[in-house]
């Protein structure tokens, strides 16, 4: 079992097996969640830049999408490692390319829209469901590799780790949205261009880290 996580064995009490999370398990999962959510945090700031008037309900929905994918990817990796490990390892090589293509496309589109709108255009385009979906995939796809880390766990332990990572991601992305909204209010229409540049930078960073 990987030493990065600690998961206590089931406690038998009155004939019922109860799974108990250790403090170190929760702490390590939370720290892993912080590390994995940094890309989503940056993208959340971009979304806040673009929509400084984003409401609480919409903000929670946006952060929830990132949190969902950060829970989905580790579990997907866990399933793949236990079933089609060789195919999964081959697919891992394509992960940086997928993230690069998605974020370059989204970021480039934002930069072009910002340049076409000009400085006098202060109304940044709203985040569409399609763009949000692509952002969620691009910022969480590297979490597939977590499936290797938690491969030795049973389904309950792997699910618990994924949910903790998801909860941390939600909180981190919520903070990113708030920061972005504050900055976006000051930058006005220029926020779209800045946001696009940031997304392109994130895509290049993921690609460089994955390939180099």
TrEMBL record:
It comes from Pyramidobacter piscolens W5455. The chain crosses the membrane at residues 20-41, 62-88, 94-112, 132-153, 159-179, 191-211. HAMAP family: MntP_pump. Belongs to the MntP (TC 9.B.29) family. It holds the Pfam family Mntp. Its main location: membrane. Keywords: Cell membrane, Ion transport, Manganese, Membrane, Transmembrane, Transmembrane helix, Transport. The gene is mntP. It is a multi-pass membrane protein. It is found in: Cell membrane. It comes from the Bacteria. This is Putative manganese efflux pump MntP. Probably functions as a manganese efflux pump.
């Amino acid at each position: 079992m990987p030493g990065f996580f600690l998961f206590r064995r089931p406690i038998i009490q009155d004939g019922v097996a109860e799974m108990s999370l250790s403090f170190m398990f929760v702490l390590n999962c939370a720290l892993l969640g912080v590390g994995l959510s940094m890309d989503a945090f940056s993208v959340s700031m971009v979304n806040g830049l673009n929509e400084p008037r984003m409401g609480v309900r919409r903000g929670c929905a946006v952060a929830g999408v990132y949190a969902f994918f950060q829970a989905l990817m580790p579990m997907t990796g866990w399933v793949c490692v236990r079933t089609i490990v060789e195919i999964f390892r081959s697919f891992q090589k394509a992960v940086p390319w997928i993230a690069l293509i998605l974020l370059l496309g989204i970021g480039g589109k934002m930069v072009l829209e910002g340049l076409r709108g000009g400085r006098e255009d202060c109304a940044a385009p709203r985040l569409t469901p399609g763009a949000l979906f692509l952002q969620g995939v691009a910022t969480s796809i590297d979490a597939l590799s977590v499936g290797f880390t938690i491969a030795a766990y049973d389904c309950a332990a792997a699910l618990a780790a994924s949910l903790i990572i998801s909860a941390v991601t939600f909180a981190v992305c919520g903070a990113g949205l708030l920061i972005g909204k504050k900055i976006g209010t000051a930058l006005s229409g220029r926020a779209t261009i800045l946001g696009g540049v940031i997304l392109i930078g994130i895509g290049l960073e993921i690609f460089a880290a994955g390939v180099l």
